[in-house]
Amino acid sequence: MKRALIITGAAILVLGAACYFLFGAPGGAPTPERFIVSLGETRAQAIQNLADQGFIRSGFGFSIASTLEGNQAIIPGGYKINGSMNVFQVVSALNRPPYMKWVVVPEGLRKEETANLLQKDLGWTDATKNQFLNAYQTLGGNDYKEGVYFPDTYLLPVDETGTQIAQRFITQFNESFAPYAKEATAQNIKWTTALKIASIIQREAAGTSDMALISGIIWNRLLKNMPLDIDATIQYARGDTGNGFWAPLAVADLKIDSLYNTYLHKGLPPTPISNPGLAAIDAALNPQTTTCLYYIHDANHIIHCADTYAEQELNVKKYLQ
Description:
By secondary structure, the protein is mostly helical. It is built from 13 helices and six strands.
């Protein structure tokens, strides 16, 4: 009997030790720490990262606890957990929506498109969205109205104001643009001028391979005091009429009375027309040397340029008709 009690007691101790190892808190300060689940990260990778960063004692224990709690997917994002939480508490925290969410912002969007994307991904109200759209008024004025909401992959807090998120975008732009700002200064080009040209290149290019050529053509037309005659600037002036911001132009659109109408007004538009990536910014400052003044893209998105309008008309007949 005594021996049986000893064995039973030992078994209980072993079981208790095993449970503590599998499910107990690893130990640490109760202050919340940020745990990040990256985009594309598998569940197995997330569990391994939890163990590697000291938030759980055992990946196997986490898997058992997760199964008991319903085995929900771990959504990419940022979570607040700490080393004083047991594995069930960690599972519970990761089953809730993350307090920071990933947002992928493509190159070439105008600010309103970026705001729409943020509203969808972060669950913004219209009021928060309007804060983002109008933040430039207090964060830098008209030079920050467009073009500085840098395209990138962001991990953003869901509870920040639209103004705070706008500041994050502008900070990322300032950091990424810094070497190009120095290059612009060395070439005696205003950074705002370089950004306007980059924003046009971003919208007009079929890919990075033709950006430098389009840049060269834009610079040629500017230096010859010719109207740019660029459709994308008119699309920006027109906005979204129900078919998207960048829908093809109608004939009537060419007559829109706006400084963004580069068919009617010489020079660059008042602001950038999109938020360009680094390739377009680099092309704006490093244009391809060319004698071309015109260009088109064919059905396969291959660019064809011309020195004269007569040559441009021939290209249109050859490649577009």
